[in-house]
Protein backbone atom coordinates (compact mmCIF):
# COMPACT_ATOMS: atom_id res chain seq x y z
CA UNK A 1 0.00 0.00 0.00
CA UNK A 2 1.63 3.19 -1.22
CA UNK A 3 1.16 6.58 0.44
CA UNK A 4 0.94 9.57 -1.90
CA UNK A 5 1.32 13.29 -1.29
CA UNK A 6 -2.25 13.95 -2.55
CA UNK A 7 -3.64 11.87 0.35
CA UNK A 8 -1.93 13.96 3.00
CA UNK A 9 -3.13 17.12 4.72
CA UNK A 10 -0.30 19.18 6.17
CA UNK A 11 -0.66 20.17 9.82
CA UNK A 12 1.96 21.97 11.93
CA UNK A 13 5.72 21.86 11.64
CA UNK A 14 7.32 19.58 14.27
CA UNK A 15 10.91 20.59 13.76
CA UNK A 16 13.74 21.16 11.35
CA UNK A 17 16.83 19.04 10.88
CA UNK A 18 19.87 19.01 8.64
CA UNK A 19 18.01 17.57 5.66
CA UNK A 20 14.65 19.29 5.81
CA UNK A 21 11.49 19.81 7.78
CA UNK A 22 9.39 17.31 9.77
CA UNK A 23 5.63 18.00 9.67
CA UNK A 24 2.61 16.48 11.29
CA UNK A 25 0.24 15.34 8.52
CA UNK A 26 -3.08 13.51 8.33
CA UNK A 27 -3.41 10.59 5.92
CA UNK A 28 -6.96 11.20 4.73
CA UNK A 29 -7.86 7.67 3.48
CA UNK A 30 -7.17 6.19 6.93
CA UNK A 31 -7.40 9.23 9.23
CA UNK A 32 -4.00 8.33 10.71
CA UNK A 33 -1.81 11.20 11.87
CA UNK A 34 1.78 10.79 10.82
CA UNK A 35 5.08 12.61 11.03
CA UNK A 36 6.38 13.31 7.52
CA UNK A 37 10.08 13.91 7.20
CA UNK A 38 11.39 15.69 4.15
CA UNK A 39 14.84 14.49 3.09
CA UNK A 40 16.41 16.52 0.32
CA UNK A 41 18.78 14.51 -1.83
CA UNK A 42 21.46 15.21 -4.37
CA UNK A 43 21.28 12.40 -6.89
CA UNK A 44 20.16 11.22 -10.25
CA UNK A 45 16.63 9.82 -10.46
CA UNK A 46 17.82 6.26 -11.18
CA UNK A 47 18.86 5.88 -7.55
CA UNK A 48 15.44 6.75 -6.11
CA UNK A 49 13.89 3.31 -6.63
CA UNK A 50 16.88 1.71 -4.92
CA UNK A 51 16.33 3.93 -1.88
CA UNK A 52 12.62 3.10 -1.69
CA UNK A 53 13.54 -0.59 -1.95
CA UNK A 54 16.05 -0.31 0.87
CA UNK A 55 13.48 1.46 3.04
CA UNK A 56 11.06 -1.39 2.42
CA UNK A 57 12.74 -3.62 5.03
CA UNK A 58 11.13 -1.32 7.56
CA UNK A 59 7.69 -2.65 6.63
CA UNK A 60 8.75 -6.07 7.86
CA UNK A 61 10.03 -4.89 11.19
CA UNK A 62 8.06 -3.84 14.17
CA UNK A 63 9.23 -3.25 17.68
CA UNK A 64 7.63 -1.35 20.55
CA UNK A 65 10.93 0.56 20.78
CA UNK A 66 11.15 1.68 17.14
CA UNK A 67 8.96 4.34 15.52
CA UNK A 68 6.60 2.67 13.01
CA UNK A 69 7.31 3.23 9.33
CA UNK A 70 4.26 3.86 7.14
CA UNK A 71 5.90 4.38 3.77
CA UNK A 72 8.02 6.71 1.66
CA UNK A 73 7.60 8.38 -1.70
CA UNK A 74 9.50 10.98 -3.65
CA UNK A 75 8.64 14.21 -5.39
CA UNK A 76 11.45 15.46 -7.63
CA UNK A 77 14.62 14.60 -5.68
CA UNK A 78 13.10 14.84 -2.23
CA UNK A 79 12.17 11.72 -0.29
CA UNK A 80 9.14 12.02 1.99
CA UNK A 81 9.37 9.53 4.81
CA UNK A 82 6.14 8.90 6.75
CA UNK A 83 6.40 7.53 10.26
CA UNK A 84 4.49 7.23 13.48
CA UNK A 85 3.73 10.61 15.05
CA UNK A 86 5.06 10.77 18.62
CA UNK A 87 2.93 13.36 20.39
CA UNK A 88 5.35 14.25 23.19
CA UNK A 89 8.24 14.98 20.82
CA UNK A 90 11.93 14.27 21.18
CA UNK A 91 13.96 13.94 24.37
CA UNK A 92 15.92 17.14 23.78
CA UNK A 93 12.67 19.05 24.25
CA UNK A 94 11.73 17.14 27.38
CA UNK A 95 15.04 17.82 29.07
CA UNK A 96 14.08 20.24 31.80
CA UNK A 97 16.58 23.03 32.37
CA UNK A 98 18.29 20.87 34.97
CA UNK A 99 17.87 17.49 33.28
CA UNK A 100 15.64 14.43 33.68
CA UNK A 101 15.22 12.75 37.07
CA UNK A 102 17.16 9.49 37.30
CA UNK A 103 14.07 7.22 37.41
CA UNK A 104 12.78 8.67 34.12
CA UNK A 105 16.25 8.57 32.63
CA UNK A 106 16.70 4.89 33.51
CA UNK A 107 13.44 3.79 31.89
CA UNK A 108 14.17 5.91 28.81
CA UNK A 109 17.63 4.38 28.44
CA UNK A 110 16.24 0.86 28.87
CA UNK A 111 13.84 1.49 25.95
CA UNK A 112 16.67 2.91 23.83
CA UNK A 113 18.91 -0.10 24.49
CA UNK A 114 16.00 -2.45 23.64
CA UNK A 115 15.48 -0.52 20.39
CA UNK A 116 19.17 -0.58 19.47
CA UNK A 117 19.37 -4.31 20.22
CA UNK A 118 16.30 -4.95 18.04
CA UNK A 119 17.85 -3.04 15.12
CA UNK A 120 21.08 -4.96 15.44
CA UNK A 121 19.68 -8.43 15.98
CA UNK A 122 16.57 -8.40 13.79
CA UNK A 123 17.65 -6.06 10.99
CA UNK A 124 21.48 -6.06 11.25
CA UNK A 125 21.33 -2.28 11.37
CA UNK A 126 23.72 -0.01 13.23
CA UNK A 127 21.82 3.15 14.18
CA UNK A 128 24.64 5.67 13.46
CA UNK A 129 22.75 8.70 14.77
CA UNK A 130 21.90 8.08 18.42
CA UNK A 131 21.12 11.42 20.07
CA UNK A 132 18.29 12.96 22.09
CA UNK A 133 16.50 14.43 19.01
CA UNK A 134 16.19 10.88 17.64
CA UNK A 135 14.61 9.49 20.82
CA UNK A 136 10.87 10.15 20.70
CA UNK A 137 8.17 9.90 23.34
CA UNK A 138 4.38 9.80 23.27
CA UNK A 139 1.78 10.52 25.94
CA UNK A 140 1.23 6.76 26.37
CA UNK A 141 4.70 6.82 27.91
CA UNK A 142 6.31 4.90 25.05
CA UNK A 143 9.92 5.70 24.12
CA UNK A 144 11.01 4.90 20.55
CA UNK A 145 14.00 5.41 18.30
CA UNK A 146 13.87 7.00 14.85
CA UNK A 147 16.31 8.05 12.10
CA UNK A 148 18.55 5.00 11.99
CA UNK A 149 20.73 4.20 8.99
CA UNK A 150 18.49 1.82 7.03
CA UNK A 151 19.45 2.85 3.57
CA UNK A 152 23.07 3.08 2.47
CA UNK A 153 21.89 4.65 -0.81
CA UNK A 154 19.95 7.29 1.06
CA UNK A 155 22.91 8.02 3.33
CA UNK A 156 25.19 8.62 0.35
CA UNK A 157 22.74 11.01 -1.31
CA UNK A 158 21.89 13.32 1.58
CA UNK A 159 22.08 16.99 0.74
CA UNK A 160 23.16 18.55 4.00
CA UNK A 161 21.88 22.08 4.42
CA UNK A 162 23.90 22.75 7.55
CA UNK A 163 26.49 20.77 9.44
CA UNK A 164 25.33 19.38 12.75
CA UNK A 165 26.91 21.42 15.51
CA UNK A 166 26.76 18.93 18.37
CA UNK A 167 28.82 15.89 17.53
CA UNK A 168 27.74 12.68 19.24
CA UNK A 169 30.41 10.74 17.41
CA UNK A 170 32.78 8.49 19.28
CA UNK A 171 36.50 9.36 19.54
CA UNK A 172 37.39 6.53 17.13
CA UNK A 173 35.18 8.16 14.49
CA UNK A 174 37.22 11.35 14.73
CA UNK A 175 40.70 9.83 14.72
CA UNK A 176 40.26 6.47 13.02
CA UNK A 177 43.20 4.14 13.54
CA UNK A 178 43.71 0.75 11.95
CA UNK A 179 40.17 -0.51 11.93
CA UNK A 180 37.82 2.38 11.25
CA UNK A 181 34.58 0.64 10.34
CA UNK A 182 31.53 1.88 12.17
CA UNK A 183 30.50 -0.65 14.77
CA UNK A 184 27.85 -1.02 17.41
CA UNK A 185 30.45 0.26 19.93
CA UNK A 186 30.27 3.72 18.34
CA UNK A 187 26.50 3.75 18.93
CA UNK A 188 27.17 2.79 22.57
CA UNK A 189 29.36 5.90 22.92
CA UNK A 190 26.63 8.10 21.43
CA UNK A 191 24.17 6.49 23.83
CA UNK A 192 26.46 7.36 26.77
CA UNK A 193 26.77 10.95 25.61
CA UNK A 194 23.00 11.20 25.15
CA UNK A 195 22.47 9.90 28.72
CA UNK A 196 24.74 12.62 30.11
CA UNK A 197 22.93 15.24 28.01
CA UNK A 198 19.48 14.09 29.16
CA UNK A 199 20.66 13.98 32.78
CA UNK A 200 22.31 17.41 32.71
CA UNK A 201 19.75 19.11 30.49
CA UNK A 202 22.46 20.30 28.12
CA UNK A 203 24.98 18.96 25.62
CA UNK A 204 27.98 17.91 27.74
CA UNK A 205 30.64 19.59 25.60
CA UNK A 206 28.58 22.76 25.02
CA UNK A 207 30.96 25.08 26.84
CA UNK A 208 33.54 24.59 24.10
CA UNK A 209 33.74 27.60 21.82
CA UNK A 210 33.48 25.95 18.37
CA UNK A 211 32.72 22.65 16.66
CA UNK A 212 36.46 22.18 16.27
CA UNK A 213 36.99 22.71 20.01
CA UNK A 214 34.16 20.25 20.76
CA UNK A 215 35.68 17.60 18.52
CA UNK A 216 39.11 18.14 20.04
CA UNK A 217 37.57 17.80 23.52
CA UNK A 218 35.94 14.46 22.59
CA UNK A 219 39.32 13.05 21.63
CA UNK A 220 41.50 14.67 24.31
CA UNK A 221 39.40 15.18 27.44
CA UNK A 222 38.20 12.65 29.96
CA UNK A 223 34.69 11.52 29.00
CA UNK A 224 31.83 13.55 30.54
CA UNK A 225 30.09 12.33 33.71
CA UNK A 226 26.90 12.90 35.63
CA UNK A 227 27.23 14.65 39.02
CA UNK A 228 27.60 12.46 42.11
CA UNK A 229 25.11 14.43 44.17
CA UNK A 230 22.19 13.81 41.79
CA UNK A 231 22.86 10.39 40.24
CA UNK A 232 23.38 6.96 41.78
CA UNK A 233 26.62 5.01 41.60
CA UNK A 234 24.92 2.45 39.28
CA UNK A 235 23.86 5.17 36.88
CA UNK A 236 27.28 6.78 36.82
CA UNK A 237 28.96 3.41 36.31
CA UNK A 238 26.63 2.65 33.38
CA UNK A 239 27.57 5.95 31.73
CA UNK A 240 31.29 5.45 32.36
CA UNK A 241 31.18 2.03 30.66
CA UNK A 242 29.43 3.46 27.57
CA UNK A 243 31.86 6.39 27.43
CA UNK A 244 35.03 4.30 27.50
CA UNK A 245 37.36 5.89 24.95
CA UNK A 246 38.55 2.43 23.92
CA UNK A 247 35.71 1.07 21.72
CA UNK A 248 36.47 -2.63 22.30
CA UNK A 249 36.01 -2.16 26.06
CA UNK A 250 32.47 -0.79 25.74
CA UNK A 251 29.67 -3.19 26.74
CA UNK A 252 27.35 -4.99 24.32
CA UNK A 253 23.57 -4.31 24.47
CA UNK A 254 23.09 -7.60 26.29
CA UNK A 255 25.62 -6.57 28.92
CA UNK A 256 23.97 -3.16 29.25
CA UNK A 257 20.58 -4.78 29.88
CA UNK A 258 22.15 -6.91 32.63
CA UNK A 259 23.82 -3.89 34.26
CA UNK A 260 22.46 -3.20 37.79
CA UNK A 261 21.09 0.19 36.62
CA UNK A 262 18.72 -1.46 34.08
CA UNK A 263 18.37 -5.09 35.21
CA UNK A 264 15.13 -4.41 37.11
CA UNK A 265 13.34 -3.50 33.84
CA UNK A 266 14.17 -6.89 32.36
CA UNK A 267 12.30 -8.69 35.12
CA UNK A 268 8.77 -9.46 33.82
CA UNK A 269 7.30 -8.27 37.14
CA UNK A 270 9.52 -5.18 37.21
CA UNK A 271 8.73 -1.62 36.22
CA UNK A 272 9.64 -2.18 32.60
CA UNK A 273 6.69 -4.49 32.07
CA UNK A 274 4.16 -1.81 32.97
P1 LIG B 1 19.43 15.97 12.49
O1 LIG B 1 18.96 16.55 11.23
O2 LIG B 1 20.81 16.40 12.85
O3 LIG B 1 19.28 14.48 12.55
P2 LIG B 1 17.08 16.28 14.13
O4 LIG B 1 16.98 14.85 14.54
O5 LIG B 1 16.66 17.28 15.15
O6 LIG B 1 18.55 16.61 13.69
P3 LIG B 1 15.01 15.80 12.18
O7 LIG B 1 15.21 14.33 12.27
O8 LIG B 1 14.77 16.40 10.84
O9 LIG B 1 16.26 16.55 12.80
O10 LIG B 1 13.80 16.15 13.14
C1 LIG B 1 13.44 17.47 13.47
C2 LIG B 1 12.59 17.47 14.73
O11 LIG B 1 11.29 16.94 14.44
C3 LIG B 1 13.14 16.56 15.83
O12 LIG B 1 14.04 17.28 16.66
C4 LIG B 1 11.90 16.11 16.58
O13 LIG B 1 11.65 16.98 17.67
C5 LIG B 1 10.77 16.24 15.55
N1 LIG B 1 10.33 14.91 15.09
C6 LIG B 1 10.98 14.09 14.24
N2 LIG B 1 10.31 12.95 14.02
C7 LIG B 1 9.18 13.03 14.76
C8 LIG B 1 8.05 12.13 14.99
N3 LIG B 1 7.99 10.94 14.39
N4 LIG B 1 7.08 12.54 15.84
C9 LIG B 1 7.19 13.73 16.45
N5 LIG B 1 8.20 14.60 16.29
C10 LIG B 1 9.19 14.27 15.46
MG1 LIG C 1 16.10 13.20 13.72
From TrEMBL:
Secreted listed as a keyword: no
GO cellular component, one term: cellular bud tip
Domain of life from the UniProt record: Eukaryota
Reactions catalysed: L-tyrosyl-[protein] + ATP = O-phospho-L-tyrosyl-[protein] + ADP + H(+); L-threonyl-[protein] + ATP = O-phospho-L-threonyl-[protein] + ADP + H(+); L-seryl-[protein] + ATP = O-phospho-L-seryl-[protein] + ADP + H(+)
Location of the Protein kinase domain: 8-262
EC number: 2.7.12.2
Binding positions for ATP per the UniProt entry: 37
Broad EC category: transferase
Recorded family membership: Belongs to the protein kinase superfamily. STE Ser/Thr protein kinase family. MAP kinase kinase subfamily.
The protein's name: mitogen-activated protein kinase kinase
Origin species: Gonapodya prolifera (strain JEL478)
